[in-house]
Amino acid sequence: MASHRRPKQPSRTRVTVLTTAAAAAVVLSSQAANAAPAEKLTKDEVKTKVDKLYEEAEQATEKYNGAQEKQEKLQKEISTIQDNVARGQSELNELRDSMGLAAAAQYRTGSIDSSVQLLLSSDPDDFLDKASTADQLSAQQVEALKKIQEKQRELAQERSEASTKLKDLASTRTELGKKKKEVQAKLAEARKLLNTLTAKEQAALAAADARASRDAGDRVDLGDAPTGSGRAMAAFQAAQSQLGKPYVYGATGTASYDCSGLTSWAYAQAGVSIPRTSQAQANAGTRIYSQSALKVGDLVIFYGDLHHVGFYAGNGQVLHAPRSGTVVRYESINNMPFQFGVRI
């Protein structure tokens, strides 16, 4: 016989959960339907944002360069101190050995006394502090012990200095890593933005940049601006020989450069050593605040935080390594916020 049992009704709790879930689904569906689609940036808007990211990457690059320069300087200083400590320890050992030989000679002749025993103690400072004992020493012995004391103090000071610099070096390496990641993050964000453009838009931007990056000196009228010193002109001509080389952050040539890498390399070819970073180069010579007073070969500094540098090329043009994605090229001095020139 067929069963006439009534189907089991869902519990009140289950009904409530299902009803709530259904209502939430309706609300989310409604929100999704009504939400405006993400607005696509135009090619010009993307370019503006990308240029800003490149500028921020260059700011981080100059800080990276500064940390790298500091690291190299600290490494050299630490190496020098460690060499000095090694030599000092050798000299100290020789002094102690010579005193030990003198004591052994006295012992063999049976003439060793308590003063010499104290002289060879592990704590010469304590020994000399005892005036009554020092009075028993010969002048030669006192002089030898003073030399040991002085050498011990020198070694202690140099070891302390090396320890401090090693801590500074560790901190600098940490800073270097952070700045490198910051640069890479900015460049990655710029690439991501560029990838939102269509292939046609990307090609248009690349073509515009290629036109600006051509190293054709014949299309750049450098005019007849006054030239700088012989070394300034030698540096400028060295930079000209690098037209078309790509910008790479942290690079100092000769395959690629960043902005201060180009200027420091070029001046080195002229036999002049200038600092590595644009901020330091800003203080490397006489400042020229009027563009009309600039001479070919002067450095030109841009932006309020002084994070970009190039060469004045004449006729309102600069020769520089602009940013990632470009090459060493000529550009109008008015394309960036000019701060002042620097005459090395």
Query: How many beta strands in the DSSP annotation?
Result: 6
Number of helices: 10
Name the helicity range.
55-70%
Question: How many angstroms separate the termini?
Answer: 111 Å
Low-confidence stretches: 12-37
With strands numbered from the N-terminus, the spatial order across the biggest sheet is: 1-6-2-3-4-5
Rough outline: elongated
User: Taking Cα atoms only, what radius of gyration do you get, to the nearest Å?
Assistant: 36 Å
The largest β sheet comes out as:
6 strands, antiparallel
SSE class = alpha+beta
Mean pLDDT metric: 81
- Strand content range: 5-15%
The H-and-E topology, N to C, reads as HHHHHHHHHHEEEEEE
Helices and strands in order:
Layout: H1 12-34, H2 43-108, H3 114-119, H4 124-129, H5 131-134, H6 139-194, H7 199-213, H8 230-240, H9 259-269, H10 278-281, E1 286-288, E2 299-302, E3 308-314, E4 317-320, E5 329-332, E6 338-343
Helix pairs in contact: 2-6, 8-9
Question: Brief description of this entry?
Answer:
The protein is α+β, with helices and mostly antiparallel strands. The protein has helices at residues 12-34, 43-108, 114-119, 124-129, 131-134, 139-194, 199-213, 230-240, 259-269, 278-281, and strands at residues 286-288, 299-302, 308-314, 317-320, 329-332, 338-343.
Description:
The chain has 344 residues and is of the alpha+beta class. The protein has helices at residues 12-34, 43-108, 114-119, 124-129, 131-134, 139-194, 199-213, 230-240, 259-269, 278-281, and strands at residues 286-288, 299-302, 308-314, 317-320, 329-332, 338-343. The protein has a six-stranded antiparallel sheet. Strand 2 (299-302) and strand 3 (308-314) form a beta hairpin. Helix 2 packs antiparallel against helix 6 and helix 8 (230-240) packs across helix 9. The radius of gyration is 36 Å and the shape is elongated. Residues 12-37 have low confidence and may be disordered.
